[in-house]
Amino acid sequence: MKRHSALSNEIWLLRRLVKYEKRFPLLLSALIAMKLLLPLLSTLLPAAAVAALTRGGGMGRYLAVIGGLMALYAGAAFLRDWLENRNVILRDNFRQEVCVAGLMKKAMTMDYSLLESAEGQRELAAAKNMAGNPMAGGVNELVYIMEPWLRNLLGILLYGAAAAVLDWRILLVLAGMTAANCAAASLVRRYEVQTQKERAQGYRERDYLVRQSDNPANGKDVRLYRMESWFMDSLHTAFQRLWVYRRKRERRRRLGLVSDTLFLALRDILAYTVLVSAFLSGEMDAAGFTFSLGVLSTLTMWLSEFIQTHDNLLYYSIGFNHFRNFMDREDPVHESGDAKADAVRRPPRVELRDVTFTYPEAKTPAIDHLSLTLEPGEKVALVGLNGAGKTTLVKLLSGLYRPDSGEILIDGVPAEQFDPKAYWELVGTVFQDVSLLPFTIGENVAGRERYDRDRVWDALDKAGLREAVGALPKGLDASLTQQMEKDGVELSGGQRQRLAFARALLKDAPLLILDEPTAALDPLAEADLYRKYAQETADKTSVFISHRLGSTQFCHRVVYMEGGRITEMGSHQELLARGGAYAKLFEVQSSWYKDKKEGQTHEEN
After folding, report:
1. Separation between Cα atoms, residue 545 and residue 551, nearest integer Å
2. What is the pLDDT of residues 134-184, one digit of tens each?
3. Were 130 and a residue from 163, 323, 338, 351 both cysteine, which residue would form a disulfide, CB within 3.0 to 4.6 Å?
4. How many CB atoms are closer than 10 A to CB 303?
5. Which of 324, 323, 322, 327 shows the shortest CA–CA distance to 110?
6. Cα separation of 442 and 432, whole Å?
7. Which of 399, 393, 417 is nearest to 344 (CA)?
8. Which neighbouring-strand residues pair with 542?
9. Which residues contact residue 454 at a Cβ distance below 8 angstroms, ignoring those fewer than 6 apart?
10. C-alpha–C-alpha distance, residues 223 and 218, integer Å
């Protein structure tokens, strides 16, 4: 992971803060000014009281001076609290509206192969933790820490100048205290850097277990198989690993506390010696003694807070790098031309020429020098055992992946000549894992908030879902799931896939890809949906993936894959007659149904 300095990270954030709210520097400066003024007034109050008592002037002067300072203090405190509240709201809004929202947009638009990879998922999880979890530090702490870091630094400069006038040896003691504390903090940071990966893994394990423990999808198995003890033991182990890290970190931090105690004692001895000597010699009166003592105490406060704040800045900056690096990460640069999606004929001819694709960290290609031509309007079934490369091939065809070598052509135009967004206009997809959002049915079909209701109804009708949606009280305006609306509806697995088919039909892309589109359907519903596929995709070139080989019978051609290569190709009947791997697989599936039917006959007898 690339490590940026704490100062670089603060500047990176500050630029975005100012772009989000141009008044932020003014609000920050005003807040710092008030927080610098209040300790000064606190120091002046007792000194003014002593001066009024020792230098004469009567009760009226005493009340005027003290009353004026107290009124000024009250006004500054009110302004400080108001500014603090404004800054808190600003910081939280910035984190949500810029950092969290920016991260969401980045995740939805970045290169899909990177997002889907194990590395991409790890980086995204770490970035989400830094942006979305206020307790994790990251964005929240780095934005917050700007103000106390600058305030303490200015306080040290101002009060340090005053202390130097009293005795330069006091500054020397405080400098020694700072050096010792920085050395102790360096040990802590070194340990934090060394254990960063281990800690990140620990937090991922903890958060994953917490999420899974109350996930309703796991609730059935947890109860029926009595997994609660397993979950809790695993969670306890994850907590213990994190506690071990914290204990080791705190042991290193205690070194700084010990040095602070020793140097503060030395400072007090020296300061009191200097001040008492000046008072006894007549060089300083009681009011000056009180004020000078307050200055030194406040200076120590600024210094202690600055050391702690600076240490926190360095610590939180380590984790913040996860968020910054993810946001700064650029997608691989791919050259693209000016090919237009509307220039592609309907249905198109699709050709794969010697295409190879290998996943990161994989030793063998998932697609290995594969060549295949889909004729205009042809329906092709991709079949094979798990791991054959079918889904990878679909992702290459849909433009989510780019081949390592070889090329994909749409009507003779290489896919690289299309801008990604233009290429995606050519592709309609129905995946096995249907992704539906907790918005209205109409919005889910259209993929946007505003849409043509008549076209959506037409797509639902073609997908065989119009009657079910029409029976709902709110129709197209019914919300899916109850995550956002308490009256939301839950669709069955088959209805979800029909809705996904309606979405693909509404898009009306010339290349249609269906990955296990009937996995959640019973045989009768599956037959009905395949009939609709055949009717509604006449003007499209279509690719189907299915483990249930009944779907291959309505396709023009069947492509059987093994190890990322095509090993058999032909019509359903041709491949059965050939007696190869496809025929054996079909025989296994059909025999199961035969055995089941025979078993039912025996039972009836």
Report:
1. 9
2. 777 789 889 999 999 999 989 888 877 877 776 666 666 667 766 766 666
3. 323
4. 24
5. 327
6. 20
7. 417
8. 379, 512
9. none
10. 9
